[in-house]
Amino acid sequence: MTEDIKSLNQKELETFLCSLGEKPFRAKQIYPWLHVKHVEDFEEMTDISNKLKEKLKESSVLTVLRQVQVQCSKLDGTRKYLFALADGTMVESVLMRYKHGSSVCISSQAGCRMGCRFCASALGGLVRNLTPGEMLDQIYRIQKDLGERVSHVVVMGTGEPLDNYDNFLKFIELLSDEHGLNISQRNITVSTCGIVPRIRELAQEKLQITLALSLHASSQEKRLALMPVAKTYEIHEVIEACDYYFRQTGRRITYEYSLVGGINDSKEDARLLAGLMKGQNCHVNLIPVNPVRERDYAQPDPQAVVNFKKELEKYGINVTIRREMGRDIDGACGQLRKRFMDL
Ligand code: SAH
Prior knowledge:
Layout: E1 3-4, H1 10-19, H2 26-35, H3 50-59, E2 60-61, E3 66-72, E4 79-84, E5 90-98, E6 101-105, E7 109-111, E8 126-129, H4 132-146, E9 152-155, H5 165-175, E10 188-192, H6 196-204, E11 210-214, H7 220-226, H8 235-249, E12 253-259, H9 267-277, E13 282-288, H10 302-314, E14 319-321, H11 335-342
Parallel strand pairs: 1-2, 6-9, 9-10, 10-11, 11-12, 12-13, 13-14
Antiparallel strand pairs: 3-4, 4-5, 5-6, 7-8
Helix pairs in contact: 1-2, 4-5, 6-8, 9-10
Bound molecules: S-adenosyl-L-homocysteine.
S-adenosyl-L-homocysteine is lined by residues 114, 116, 118-119, 156, 160, 191-193, 214, 256, 258, 287, 289-290, 292, 332-333.
């Protein structure tokens, strides 16, 4: 069996090296090559003997993504990367620049099986789950490309992270490991379409990551029309699970609400939404829907977005409008990968 060496924590790496007849301390030598220096080849590990390098090459694989394309926004410095995995599968990741630092948005799966109606990633279905190493390497490659440190990570690219739960958890462990990239859990956000049992499980992990819930509707009926996952998990059940996450972790929930013109942007929607949120320590992030060529959902006009925000605020809800980034470079989720695959 070949070991996926970048997906191992330090303890597992130690066990693996012992199985090759090596001393445990080798793990302390090799781990930083993988997770701090982000080497692309075992040959770059200069303090490791040739004999051990050969052993590692025979018994393990080093996951390194290949940059196929990068698009740079002239408007705001956003960079959108298309990477090829070892088997040729494509994933995309986005780098966004803010005053407080740089944030990378990563994919957790190639494709997605959740089928949200407005989402470009849903169109081709799920190809496969990404390994922890493949999730990490999106960030490692981008850091190398930029030559600077990334401070925030959002798991909001293609895929449903809680549908790839074990790999996602290992990814968080490695990403926030003080011997690795050491990104504070408070600077990590995971976005989910609302897989209730997994939200509850995640709450029990007592992590400090932020949970963003893709709500997008003010009632069960409307949510059903946009998100098939609502067939399995009813809207109140989802909100209850988020509240449980808050009570277990103390982390305020973000509800994501993509505004679709004429579908979920009325005054009545705002009133119902505020009712769902009532008494919760949370915050609503409004996102004007990004039109996807294959779907005919329209963006509300900018004034409607502002009105919706004001309406929610009347009910005492914290609201922000998400700044649109990379508008000139296939901003919406899954669009770059989709366009590339259509060629
Ligand atoms: N599966 C996860 C994370 C990936 S999608 C989730 O559902 O949350 C990241 C966010 O982008 C989600 O809130 C998703 O609903 C939203 N999204 C997808 N396509 C979009 C589009 N065309 N316009 C606006 N938001 C979109």
